[in-house]
Specification:
single chain, alpha/beta, 7-stranded mixed β-sheet, 6-stranded parallel β-sheet, 31 helices, 33 strands, about 15% strand, globular
Amino acid sequence: MSLYLEYIKEIESRKADLGLAPKPIDSAELLSEIIAQIKDQNHEHREDSLNFFIYNTLPGTTSAAGVKAKFLKEIILGQESVAEITPEFAFELLSHMKGGPSIEVLLDLALSDDTTVSTPAAEVLKTQVFLYEADTSRLQVAYKKGNTVAKDILESYAKAEYFTKLPDVDEKIEVVTYIAGEGDISTDLLSPGHQAHSRADRELHGKCMITPQAQDEIKALQAKHPNAKVMLIAEKGTMGVGSSRMSGVNNVALWAGEQASPYVPFINIAPVVAGTNGIAPIFLTTVDVTGGIGLDLKNWVKKVDANGNTVTDANGDPILEEAYSVATGTVLTIDTKAKKLYKGDEELVDVSSAFTPQKMEFMKAGGSYAVTFGKKLQTLAAATLGIDVPQVYAPSKEISHEGQGLTAVEKIFNRNAVGVISDTPLHAGSNVRVKVNIVGSQDTTGPMTCQELEAMAASTISPLVDGAYQSGCHTASVWDSKAQANIPKLMSFMNNFGLITARDPKGVYHAMTDVIHKVLNDITIDDRAIIIGGDSHTRMSKGVAFGADSGTVAIALATGESAMPIPDSVKVVFKGKMKSHMDFRDVVHATQAQMLKQFGGENVFQGRIIEVHIGTLMADQAFTFTDWTAEMKAKASICISNNETLIQSIELAKSRIQIMINKGMENEAGMLAGLMALADKRIEEIKTGAQPALSPDDNAKYYAEVTVDLDAISEPMIADPDVNNEDVSKRYTHDVIRPVSYYKNKSVDLGFVGSCMVHKGDMQIIAQMLRNLEKKNGSIEFKAPLVVAPPTYNIVDELKAEGDWEVLEKYSGFVFDDNKPKGEARTKYDNILYLERPGCNLCMGNQEKAEPGDTVIATSTRLFQGRVVADTTEKKGESLLGSTPLVVLSTVLGRFPTMDEYTAAVEGIDLTNFEPPTEEMSTKYIPVKAV
């Protein structure tokens, strides 16, 4: 059977089984058959073939795009004749192909001696921005040889006419509201984790957004209000908390955005989203990628009494009052010039934060990619012509306060800033381009990152990037047909692109399903680095790391840069002494609880950098804190360590990078060896005093300062989804932190130790608890299942060498076998210990899940509705989050322990040793710029 007939068969199946349109074409072989059928005037499938060629072929660097560009070139040159595709129309189609093969064809035509094709080709090229060194080099060479067309194109680029000639953003945008949910809306609602396998198939994945009923309601609103955009709202909450989810924004855009090009299916842009408390920081960056709008509605405010004091309810939570209604179906107007939201003539709220000069540029250009590439192209063109760069784009926002020191994040941004004009230090609020040192792509968003790279015509990793890794952790638990179809292709693409990959496309080294954040933490060998990773938990304990959508990851890989504002920081310090029976996870939870109490329920962490003065805690253990900052709604976190601890953490990172090299994971560019050299350089800088460990200046300015009282932490602390709270907006927020005594006699159905929140020490704690219980009781019986997933293979190897793995195996009823990985997700659990393959496991919710309605106690970070455990009609599933020793003991007892039971179980076990630094971890301010 021909590829075309197989494609037709697939189309019929998609339509009959799923109600879907034909899948977009990315295969050169299939498109070649389609072109042959177009050339045959009498072919029975010629009309359909024309439609597939024009409207259903993916652009960029897909193999199909190469074939399409070549055929269009032949039509333009008169070598082929297709009545339905004139040379003029062929140029239009090339203009929508973004880059790669289409740019090559346009340059061939523009730099030719035939003015009938060079002139129109040049005009199309002037609208393009996705040019790479191979493309710009051709223009530079031609210009230096006196080619007037090349000069004309470069002059257009220097003026940034590809941007200036675009239509301005509409001054008035009418929207009709749709309440997508009450309370914080996680990106799981917009793009569920268990549907991760379909994210690259945009139309199919769009079917999973919220519910089919919600999708019908959105369509009904569009029919009733054809001139308005549907604005999805998180009522009494924040939109897009949790994971970054480019797929979530894609789904919103698919249902309520605009088609980016008439010739590219299911690529939609410019959605409008909003939340009472605005948009989660990472998700807002993702909205920018599509040129969308994210509004902070402030439509519920704290109730105050006659004296101006906040009124609270019986639980001590502030009572909210509605400032104005955004009930579903309300028609509102966004005034992008006045930067305000109106209902008719009534002004509702100032929304200026959504319409900064930079964000307006993203909206005008159709997304942030075009602006990033446009700025680089303009700079290059001006340099080639020997002229100053004309001021077209909004200048980088450069804020400097004389005499004010720098926070840690401000120091990192100053060190990595690109194209800065100011010669004074930059402070929070500045918006600049920065060099990205480390980039991570994860496996359930990776296929989308590949699509984004193809769409922006990128073919190799930027030389500016020091280290980059493609993980396999989110699909580690079950090697099913979906994983087998997606992951090898992903690994092959990323390996060819220049990343270190968890799986070897050649099959030489053992597949490594290590949790991405742990690997990124290991390959980050500089505390002044900027890290971008395709997951909200990209929160390193060295440098500053930003979780990002698949698109931002793609642009970091392709350009080695990212544009972002310097956020405000909140300083976190500790006082007192940890009790011997407390785990550091309890400190993490107590930090959130004490912060909320200290600031009257206001989350001062939201959207800001948490600068935690961790002192002597090693990177592996400190990661427990930085990882949780995603749930604190912080934009990122920075650990301030002393010199000795930082050196030890970098040495540990070196040892793990060497293990990767020993396994054969090094690439042709010698990326891992390069990281080792950079690590040695950084250690030498610290030892000699040339560049000590990163620390803020002693007169740095913070948005707020939080002091965590360790003496006040006497019980294990649990993050509770509070599933039965009468106020729906207060469920699943990560803000309800309770002591274990609250859960007296509460039964536990499943325990989970794993995900990125645990390290080697947690595995050792399990082994020691099992030894203690065996010694005390003679045997161990689990009254609830305990699932244990070590985060990395390195940890498993070290535990085996040290004897602890043997103890874990002794009491397990299931041990993972890489030679026979599971082919199906577990749906039922026995009361045994499951030793699972390293990776995310239950935390991700896309493969393994607890049984519906279970009460789960886990070390995971996720308590979103339906993520770890689904609801039943009789009972809501609960994912309560706590420390490793608490989880283990709860599964042995089948219920939450009493304090006496808990303290007895951990007696003699060396839990996290943490003492607050005894000295101020800051540097004396010296008024010079450190760029």
